[in-house]
Amino acid sequence: MATPAPTKTTSTNISVPVTPPPAPPDAAAAAAPAAAPSEGQPLHFLQRIKLFSGLSVDECQQVVKRMKRRDFPPNQIIVREGAPGNSMFFITAGLVEVRKKDPNTGIDFLLTEMGPGQNFGEMSLLTGKPRTATVSALQPTTCAVLEQKDFQELFMQYPKIGLALTTILADRVEQASQQVGIEFINLAKMQIDPRVLQLLPQPMMVQHRVLPVAFANNRLTLAMTNPNNIIALDDIRRVIKGVMIEPVIVTEEDFRKFMNTTYQQLTKKEDEPAATSGGKQSELIGAPKAEVTVDLLQSDIIRDLQMTEDLQASVTTDNKQELMNASEDAPIIRLANSILGLAIKKGTSDIHIEPMETDVQVRFRIDGVLQVVQNLPKKVQLGLVSRLKILSKLDISEKRLPQDGRISVQMEGKPIDFRVSSVPAKWGEKICMRILDKSNTTLGLDKVISHEPVLKLVRELVSQPYGIMYVTGPTGSGKTTTLYSALAEINEPGINISTAEDPIEYDLPGVVQIQANKDIGLDFARILRAFLRQDPDVILVGETRDKETAQIAVEAALTGHMVFTTLHTNSAAGAFVRLGEMGVEPFLMSASTVGVMAQRLTRRLCQKCKEPTEIDDTVRQYLGLSKDDVTYKGKGCEYCNEKGVKGRVGIYEVMKMNAELRSMVAKGASTEDIHACAVKNGMIDLKAYAGILLREGLTSVEEVLQVVSVQE
Ligand SMILES: [Zn+2]
């Protein structure tokens, strides 16, 4: 039927699945039946858009004729803040983000994300004022665009649109006032009552980077450098009981400046009068005085628990019982959950819980870099570590030996696993947790490969009927994600896909996934041999690291199967030497390989604060950049936590085999010669791909040099 409209209308969920792109509006109109609409008839795609929900299919078809389809690649700005608004946009596919600049600090703020069924740009169309926010595409996005002239005519023609518009505007106002809840403030410009400042003990303010700035009607306006800091909010609610907290955001620098200067002055002045009129503070807040130490264990407020694991199962001895008691304290449970939840939300790959001499450090690895999230009081150590060990089904009374376990949780319906390891360290057991996001929402070759021609080439390779495709690169270069993305693209009921993995990092529906287990002799080679008796079409082998696996993979490829696997080599051309070392005959490699892909991951420059930067001529030459090529660096802003980088971006080198390369491989040519031949045949190598990313401002020279020089 001719209603290809998306069904999902999520607005703020980042994991919106890519909806199939609907046909262009005019195509939809052309293909739609001319018959009168009836109850059972599928919705016209416009009817799913609130503004037009009151119109009949026929009326929608009239409206659609006035719209123009426009497509936006990821990162493209669709409307810019301050620009004149002369059209409105209806998202039919994709995902956009709406950002607004804070006039005080010049920092961009993410207001919301929008997906299919939502629209934007109507405000300035109605008011005639410049655009109040910037909207840019996060995914390939298609919009139906309605211009001012047409909009006015439609409005006159269909009064129902006017009614729907009123509802939309009311929603918008409500959303806007919610977002105002977390506004940006500039401490230097504020008059802060010293008595309000004394509501919280200074160590707590410094620890959590928070500052009480106003207090009225039992509402505390709290300036925070990180409004997601749940632990801070919990702590503060414990100190000032029963208070409503309204967070506002301050920059780290503003906070530091204030604490170093204004805070000292304000509190000094207040010190003496406070001594004489001691009742003032409690009078002001109507609650007990602030306490000086942070003590999560004493908290009596934190009660909402959401545990999915059966805690009683492992209790057997008295000794364990003590630890169990410590770990079952409600604040401890909440703290453990907060850490896991925050880590997932922040896109963390590893969590480190590190007991130190006087406190417990919590660090997250985000985009490959470890950062301190929080220092917790020493007294939570025993409970927190025990809690995490129970969740991981580890023996809580065993503290002298390293242990490995696993935690499985659900977050917003997504299954997420933590691989947990505990080791005895000087100041107590150190816990490290690797997060394995098993849902496949992040998979998709188009999500990992940014350069269109290379993406096309990879898609061509993975859809071959038989042969081997190798993905190479050092550990942590994203090889597994690429392979899974390839599988996710070709996965359909008519194809039998089997994988041998160690560990299983994603769940793919409809795919037979087998976990290798060396302890019982279930290695890749053995699984692979078993697969071949199971009539597979596509086989994924986690890694080719021994002769037997390499040879069975080649055999499978030559008998009509498509095999995906990884190799530990630096370049695409280097794969053949490595295979040779594993004992694969050159003529067999030549006959079985359809392509080799090498890859690296670098940190992606923050697209909000990148700025052009000078580079040295030698480096310019080395990377093959011309005098006119502009390169960028990240300046650091609120969006990227002042890091200048956000997320990661892959560098790829894709070698598709052809007659010339096959003949070279069969003759045992050197890695250099094969590489040169591939480049001559049009291969974009790692360095050239890095050049593309640099020119697009997606990464910086420093990042590229770190990963690409490895190959030289
Ligand atoms: Zn930034």
Descriptive report:
Helix content is 35%, strand content 24%. By secondary structure, the protein is α+β, with helices and mostly antiparallel strands. Strand 21 (538-541), helix 19 and strand 22 form a beta-alpha-beta unit. Helix 18 (524-532) packs parallel to helix 19 and helix 21 (586-592) packs antiparallel against helix 23. It binds zinc ion (ZN). Zinc ion is lined by residues 606, 608-609, 634, 636-637, 639-640, 644.
Could you outline the blueprint of secondary structure elements for this entry?
Blueprint: H1 25-31, H2 57-65, E1 68-72, E2 77-79, E3 87-93, E4 96-101, E5 108-114, E6 119-120, H3 122-127, E7 134-137, E8 141-147, H4 148-157, H5 159-180, H6 194-197, H7 202-208, E9 210-216, E10 219-224, H8 230-239, E11 244-249, H9 252-260, H10 262-276, H11 280-285, H12 318-327, H13 330-345, E12 348-355, E13 359-366, E14 369-377, H14 381-391, E15 403-411, E16 414-425, E17 428-437, H15 445-448, H16 452-462, E18 467-472, H17 479-490, E19 497-501, E20 512-515, H18 524-532, E21 538-541, H19 547-558, E22 562-567, H20 575-581, H21 586-592, E23 593-605, E24 610-613, H22 617-622, E25 631-634, E26 645-656, H23 659-666, H24 671-680, H25 686-695, H26 701-708
Parallel strand pairs: 10-11, 18-22, 18-23, 19-20, 19-21, 21-22
Antiparallel strand pairs: 1-8, 2-7, 3-6, 3-8, 4-5, 4-7, 9-10, 12-13, 12-17, 13-14, 15-16, 16-17, 23-26, 24-25
The chain binds zinc ion.
